[in-house]
Amino acid sequence: MNAGRIAPVALYQEVAERLRQRIFSHELQPGTWVDEQALAADYGISRTPLREALKVLASEGLVTLKPRRGCYVTEISERDLDEIFTVMALLEGQCAADTARKATDGDLARLTSIHNDLERAAAADDIDGYFEANQAFHQEMQLIADNRWLSQAITDLRKVIKLSRHHSLFSDGRLKQSLAEHREILEALGRRDAAGIEQAMREHISSGRRALAKIAARREATA
């Protein structure tokens, strides 16, 4: 088999990933109608793998398939965010508690190293760097918690949150506040305090939602 060719069974997955990134970057804006014919032409593929890719994205909540109307990039409302963050706080809290119970000294050292990246990014006011380190911190906790169903649920919800037009770290004071919350989480983890870290993580997620709400309120006030 030619290693340079994409196997037919994997083609729709590659297409799904490309579309996923275009959605996350907001190149394809929320509410946008997905022009299947144009996309198929752009990618040089038939409509079949494209439609399979869109089904994958629909299962993740990133697009909405409407009978006789086509496919649209999902629009996420403030109510959606309220409901998603409520669930995220529960899931991430459980993940943090499981991490506290299972983490080895080596695990703690890796999380501390990632936290140090957070500290450096915050000191440099590097929002992009902080975001990447934050993602790495949460993903490492998911690996340590070692519950694939919990990890999958968190990952899927984080994909939907990316549909939001704003990022909580752009709210005034949020970067400093988030760092303080991460310090509390790490301290609780060092004590192997499952209850304490669960509560700290829930508050961390809820605080992120409140920051997004402030951005939305400010946008509406100036519209």
SSE arrangement:
Blueprint: H1 8-24, H2 36-43, H3 47-59, E1 63-66, E2 70-73, H4 78-102, H5 105-123, H6 127-145, H7 148-161, H8 174-190, H9 194-222
Helix pairs in contact: 1-3, 4-6, 4-7, 4-9, 5-6, 5-8, 8-9
Strand-residue fraction?
Answer: under 5%
By secondary-structure content and strand pairing, the structural class works out as mainly alpha
- Number of DSSP-assigned strands: 2
**What sort of overall outline do the alpha carbons produce when their principal axes are compared?**
globular
**Can you give the helix content as a percent range?**
over 70%
Amino-to-carboxy terminus distance: 57 Å
The average pLDDT value, as a whole number, equals 90
Oligomer: single chain
**Number of distinct helices:** 9
Please give the largest β-sheet.
2 strands, antiparallel
Show unreliable segments: none
- In which order are the strands of the major sheet placed? 1-2
Give Rg in angstroms: 20 Å
Element-level helix/strand string? HHHEEHHHHHH
Provide an overview of this structure:
The chain has 223 residues and is mainly α. Helices cover 72% and strands 4% of the residues. It has nine helices and two strands, in the order H-H-H-E-E-H-H-H-H-H-H. A two-stranded antiparallel ribbon has the order 1-2. Helix 4 runs antiparallel to helix 9, helix 5 runs antiparallel to helix 6 and helix 5 packs antiparallel against helix 8. The longest helix is centred in the C-terminal third of the chain and has 29 residues. The termini are far apart.
